[in-house]
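User: quick one, fold this
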Amino acid sequence: MVSTGRNLKEVSFFTTAGEGRLEVRGTAVVTGNGIVVHLFGGELPHVGSIVVSQPRPSLQAGGGTSCTSSTLNLVGHKDDELARPVAEMLSRKLNQVVVVVAGVHVDAATAQEIRQLSQHGMGVAKRLLEQITDSG
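Assistant:
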């Protein structure tokens, strides 16, 4: 835990899923006013997409919590396909603003490998969610 000196505390978490070129790593920093997640891995970790999700009441009656999301992709990047579902799941479950920065690159990835990377990314997100909720 890191103290900012103004009675605000930041708590960081880390986890991984997958192996080798299909490994996805994730960090989460829980601040006093939102959560910042970095998903990275593959053969060339980078910044490819940024997604911000803000929780809100669902527009459907009895729908619980939903969220509104904004996405920023760097030219030629599709990392939002990983970042958006992670940001939205965490935002809804934690009722917090969540920012996800994602960059996972695998040269000549097959469709199966892309599915595996997506599964690993969501696995990382679920582990981070567990760590965050267990930290109280």
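User: anything notable?
Assistant: The domain at 11-134 is CATH 3.30.230.100 (Ribosomal Protein S5; domain 2).
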